[in-house]
Write a structure and sequence with these properties.
The chain contains six helices and 18 strands. With 266 residues, it is an alpha+beta fold. The chain has an 18-stranded mixed beta sheet that branches. The N and C termini lie close together (10 Å).
Length: 266
């Protein structure tokens, strides 16, 4: 049987330059595919997210995201990468995506892209058992969660930057991942963060759009601001602007860079 060629791209999201931000693979399908097959492709490509996009109507696309081990219900950098690829291929503006996390939209903003995502602020909880040990003994000042992740406020940007968590202990916690955050020491940014999700095959994510759906409203309430810029202190770094102008929405803004174009032979 002849192989079928599927257009495949590697895109750095929330990035100004190649090899920064968060890489995502994008597979452009002619029709929806089997989930088990998509998971195998995600494992093969071994990116923080592999996005599968297929037409679902005029300007509307079905979109699913997979890590190397699991399907995601919400993924900012994978959505940004998919929109970037579709626009490079001549798609209309704006775009709408039907996803497990609901309908998401994307639009161009000059050389940047804006994503309409749900606002999912964390609510305070008691620190779960094992959290402090997982955070290398760091004393969490505030702990919360939403439907996806745990959130921990640390005393300073320095504490966030120097944290060396115990990934085995993090994997035992009941959450997709753990976000650590603090106010930024650089006035160009409102807050900083890092994101660890070993449970879903991501020891440390590079630039996490979905986490900013919570970080934006969390810091927006604290700082009494509706426009904020967050900096993710990962090895590759990432910058995500969050706008909170509409109730229930976290509007994420960033850039993307294509670093590879090819084909998946299946």
């Amino acid at each position: 049987m002849d192989a079928v060629s599927v257009p495949l791209f590697l895109v750095d999201s929330f990035a100004d330059l190649p090899f920064t931000g968060n890489p995502a693979a994008v597979c452009v399908l002619e029709a929806p595919a089997d989930g088990a097959w998509m998971q195998r492709v995600g494992a093969e490509l071994n990116q923080a997210a592999t996005a599968f996009v297929a037409p679902a109507g005029e300007g509307v696309y079905g979109l699913r995201w997979f890590t190397s081990t699991t399907e995601l219900t919400l993924c900012g950098h994978g959505t940004l990468a998919a929109a970037h690829v579709l626009w490079e291929r001549g798609a209309s503006d704006p775009l709408a995506f039907e996803t497990a996390g609901g309908r998401l939209t994307a639009r161009r903003e000059g050389d940047r892209f804006g994503l309409s995502f749900p606002s999912i602020p964390p609510y305070p909880i008691e620190p779960p058992s094992g959290l402090q040990e997982a955070l290398d003994g760091s004393d969490p000042g505030w702990v919360g969660r939403n439907d996806l992740d745990l959130f921990v406020e640390l005393p300073s940007e320095g504490h966030v930057r120097s944290l060396r968590p115990n990934l085995d202990r993090l994997r035992e916690l009941d959450a997709r991942g753990v976000v650590v955050t603090a106010a930024s020491s650089d006035p160009a940014y409102a807050f900083v963060s890092r994101y660890f999700a070993p449970k879903i095959g991501i020891p440390e994510d590079q630039a996490t759009g979905s986490a900013h759906c919570a970080l934006g409203p969390f810091w927006g309430e604290r700082l009494q601001r509706t426009h904020l810029v967050g900096r993710q202190l990962s090895p590759r770094g990432g910058v995500v602007e969050v706008r909170l102008d509409r109730p229930g929405e976290a509007y994420l803004v960033g850039r993307a860079v294509t670093v590879l174009r090819g084909a998946l032979l299946v």
